[in-house]
Amino acid sequence: MYARRMRGLKRWMKWQGIEYSDALLFSIDNEEMAAQPLSISVKTLCDLKDGDIVATIPKQSCLTVKTSAANHLIEEAQLGGYLALAVALMYEKSLGPQSKWFQYLQMLPPFEPIPLLWSLPEIDSLLSGTEIHKTVKEDKALVYQDWKECIKPLLGSDSFELNADFFTVDEYFAAKSLIASRSFQIDDYHGTGMVPLADLFNHKTAAEDVHFTSVSFSSESDSDTEYGKRDADDENDEPRASDSHSQTEGSGGSELELSSSSGTGLKFMEMIIVKDVKAGAEVFNTYGYVGNAALLHRYGFTEPDNPFDILNIDLDMVVQWSLSLFSCRHCRRRLSLWRKLDYLGCVSQDSEYFEISLNGEPQMELLVLLYIMLLPEDNYNELDLALSSIGEVKETPNLRLLRKKNFLSTEELEISKKLLLTRSVRQALFSLADGRESLYGPNTLEDDIRSFNDLCHATASKLYHSLMLRISERRIIGKLRSFAASVATVHWMRFSK
Ligand SMILES: C[S@@+](CC[C@H](N)C(=O)[O-])C[C@H]1O[C@@H](n2cnc3c(N)ncnc32)[C@H](O)[C@@H]1O
């Protein structure tokens, strides 16, 4: 059945002017597993060389708000962002064989089993403690709210004549999951859309084989715009929050690696090989330089040993730790002194948090906060006085240590970090590690690893990926403990001069 649909898709791509190399093989990996959603990968039948162009995709063949037959409806209903694209997708599905994308839609999975589509008990049992537990629950509520406020009213309207069966809340969640896992930012005019062929490539972290380039008719070499990679520090690499229309854009769209700032003049996108690929191998794209939390959140899978994994500790947890040792007044004053020194954690929506890197190193801001919380009262008063003085501020050793300008050079930063790692700060890091670990519930890391090793990936995909995420995060907690156990070797001399 799938082979016939695949032939239909290939014929359709030809009609649409989508050209691709004969070397590309679209392989259905799990055809015999009827209960599983279809899984396609792209392989190469012969050696591919760096620079080979393996596909050309006209933008007109992409399913976007601009190209969809739902364009007028979407404009009239004043829908925007990913919500509008979801309506376009649902609308095209509702047209059946009348849709320009019928053969393309026939090969799409009905949905992608990303956590947004998991039941609440599944989310609570599989994701608790992980970086995405709270976000996924919030996403679920917001997506439902979007449907109720923006899509449901369209169903009762005579002017739109929508087939309600294709616009149910379940269909909306399904459309959101497909957009999250396989939409691309095309250009300013088309916005985000579904890009046939490009969305068949699987992801490999930081080891992709193809990039995308937008090509103009007139001057190809001048106007090429690279799409393949994001900068490692691209802020879009984190799950994002809403835009103007929908509050749930972060959960709805991922913008796979095809983004462009190009204008409307560029009519095609090209897929270019960026490193040699041997015959028979899979050809991978990259969906961005992101850790397992973001991969699971947006695309429904994780990777072992992901170098972009990270762990966060909420400011709330630090405050709770502090309240377990000190009075409320103490905590408030110390926190405000930390802010007076111009410190801030990472901020996302309504939460403030600190990052712990893959190798277990806490963000400098966290070390400074712990140090201030634990300062003896005399030192705190001295520091507070120095900061409150009008006119010339009296430099004290602590002020010199804690001022942000000391962290500008790598050498000073490393020295400061070691000085901040007093015995009590290290003890505090252990307590925070314990607190963060307790969020995962009663199962230990060893229990998780044992369950993971006993699993069959193919039949227990949700459990497999959620365990992979828990294990990746808990290993970082282990490294945080090792970091806290490391002994500082720098002396105060430098700062007390
Ligand atoms: C853009 S599609 C890629 C093509 C897809 N395999 C298909 O069958 O159409 C993205 C989806 O492919 C799957 N996928 C991509 N890369 C993967 C990987 N490295 N490991 C597991 N699943 C992956 C995930 O289900 C993801 O949501």
What is the compact description of this entry?
This protein has about 500 residues and is an alpha+beta fold.
General description of the model:
Residues about 215-250, about 260-265 and about 490-495 have low confidence and may be disordered. Helix content is about 45%, strand content about 10%. The protein contains 20 helices and 13 strands. The chain has two domains: about 1-300, Alpha-Beta Complex (set domain protein methyltransferase, domain 1), CATH 3.90.1410; about 310-495, set domain protein methyltransferase, domain 2 (Alpha-Beta Complex). The protein is α+β, with helices and mostly antiparallel strands and about 500 residues long. The strands form four sheets. The protein has a five-stranded antiparallel sheet with strand order 1-4-10-8-9. Helix 12 packs across helix 13 and helix 17 (about 425-440) runs antiparallel to helix 19 (about 460-485). The structure holds S-adenosylmethionine (SAM).
